[in-house]
């Protein structure tokens, strides 16, 4: 008995594995660190454990051809370093030591294209190591917390793990070598041009 086309498509839809959608790859060139940043944004907000699981799935299926995706990194802030107050999690600005803080406060100054990326629309989880560890700090009820970064305001703050910002997968690689000549090469080239220009002039003078 043969299945109809409609039933065949339905059967394939059921049997084939479903890959969770992402919003599309974002690339930012960072000349400060000679680094190319590549981002994948989740298509929906996620609690912190779900964000870590999402990253693992991306690496397992080698999303976009890579298996080294991770959450954006941040050191685990200290009270005295970031003016951290256990009763106020929204006062940390200029945290340039985190990946997203560096992009927001440093790269944006010389690369206005960062302003046109989807990153500005959301806040995102940060991990304190490459495995996506949450913060060592706990709230007043001893619940675990993790860092998040709001790319629309530049604020970095602690939140409970069931808070739901978006998840962001990040990987870095060295910038491609530039096609612009090195200074020594350019100088030699200019010297050669001047020599060629001088030869006809000297001949005319000798006549």
Task: Report on this structure.
The chain is an alpha+beta fold and about 210 residues long. The protein has one domain (about 10-180): Roll (Mannose-Binding Protein A, Chain A). The protein contains five helices and six strands.
Write the SSE topology.
Blueprint (H helix, E strand, L loop, with lengths): L4 H11 L6 E9 L4 E11 L2 H13 L18 H4 L16 H12 L12 E3 L19 E6 L4 E6 L5 E9 L8 H24 L1
Antiparallel strand pairs: 1-2, 2-6, 3-4, 4-5
Residue share in helix: 25-40%
At CATH level 2, the architecture is: Roll
In percent, how much strand structure appears in the residues?
15-25%
Task: State the end-to-end CA separation.
Answer: 100 Å
Under the CATH scheme, which class? Alpha Beta
The SSE string, one letter per element, is HEEHHHEEEEH
User: Order of strands across the widest beta sheet?
Assistant: 1-2-6
User: What is the structural class?
Assistant: alpha+beta
Instruction: Say how many strands there are.
Output: 6
The mean pLDDT is: 75
Instruction: State the shape.
Output: globular
Helices, by number, come to: 5
Number of domains: 1
The CATH topology is Mannose-Binding Protein A, Chain A
Radius of gyration, whole Å: 26 Å
Low-confidence stretches: 5-22, 179-190
Largest sheet: 3 strands, antiparallel
Essential attributes:
21% strand, alpha+beta, 6 strands, Mannose-Binding Protein A, Chain A, 5 helices, 207 residues, three-stranded antiparallel sheet
State the gist of this model.
This protein is an alpha+beta fold and 207 residues long. 31% of the residues lie in helices and 21% in strands.
